[in-house]
Amino acid sequence: MNPDSAKIVEVGARDGLQNERVPLSVKQKVEFINLLSKTGLTSIEAGSFVSPKWVPQMASSSEVLATINRQDKTTYSALTPNIKGLEQAIAAKADEVAIFTGASETFVRKNINCTIEESIERFIPLISMAKEHNLKVRGYVSCVMGCPYEGAISFKQVIDTTQRLIDIGCYEVSLGDTIGVGTAHKVKELITETTQQIDVNKLAVHFHDTYGQALANIYASLELGIRTIDASVAGLGGCPYAKGASGNVATEDVIYMLHGLGLNTGVDLDKLIDAGRYICEELNRPNGSKVALARPLKN
């Protein structure tokens, strides 16, 4: 990737909405994604093919993907935890799929009832099937900076898990600070060690802002060559492990910082702010973006 540019993976329509309590109609979700598509974003997580029993907000993902106005330069991806989910994503014409595991054995067992290695083994046939359909597969590793059950996680565990996902076919792995406990110094240590073994261009970062450290952690990552960043417009999505805490870092704030650093994103910040304001009105929730709050409303 060009060192003078940075890529945003917009996760608000999936990782963000699935943690919001107000249910949205297909029409509202489609309008939201269409607004995001007009901003210049090149990667949008548009849905998740998981059990509607566990994630009711994502129950309409097939209809949403079938209805959105797709932009040629934008990749619309979906989370697919298993073969059934992948089949649904293929039928819905997702451009890319994502799989997830964690760097904490306890976290993975509590979330998907297996070990880390078992979770990865389950993905092998899924990746094989995805490639048969010319779909790229992205990986997520949760709890890279800490776990709500185990506390600190070893860098070795993070690196080994990331390497395994790459070995089985993920083109990129997003390192997720699920509970937002990371700080810039620790982030630099982790990425420095990780990039001694794994190409920096195969890594992305996904920082939650639970303790207000997300932008600092992203800046630390940029200094070490990371150029792909997950973010959620308006900071959609709360943190399930810290009552009242913010979850995802707001895309508007990340874009403002990236542009201030002279990095090209191809994203129109004003249009992004408009998309964030729209969805916050529909959800009847405050806007989690400092930049959006600082910009005056247009008449």
Tell me what you see in this structure.
The chain has 299 residues and is α/β, with parallel strands linked by helices. It has one domain: TIM Barrel (Alpha-Beta Barrel), CATH 3.20.20. 41% of the residues lie in helices and 15% in strands. It contains twelve helices and eight strands. The strands form two sheets. A six-stranded parallel β-sheet has the order 2-3-4-5-6-7. β3, α4 and β4 form a beta-alpha-beta unit. The model has no long low-confidence stretch (mean pLDDT 95). One of its GO terms (molecular function) is hydroxymethylglutaryl-CoA lyase activity. Pathway: Metabolic intermediate metabolism; (S)-3-hydroxy-3-methylglutaryl-CoA degradation; acetoacetate from (S)-3-hydroxy-3-methylglutaryl-CoA: step 1/1. Keywords: Lyase, Metal-binding. This is hydroxymethylglutaryl-CoA lyase. It comes from Alkalimarinus sediminis.
